[in-house]
């Protein structure tokens, strides 16, 4: 996990978030992918998250999405 990404069961239900904020990785990734906002714009509209935190959140989300896809593929190949 990136230095900027953390989890805490007491904050936003334990979802991965940008350290020092209550902004989840999922929220940032949706802004990036669905709303097609740039990391710079996301950092601008989320004052508790800097651009580095936004980029780390996007990277974290993409890496975890890739791992989910690999896991699904392994299950499909193994027939489980």
TrEMBL record:
It holds the Pfam family DUF433. It comes from the Archaea. InterPro entries: DUF433, Homeodomain-like_sf, WH-like_DNA-bd_sf. This is Antitoxin. The lineage of its organism: Archaea, Methanobacteriati, Methanobacteriota, candidate division MSBL1.
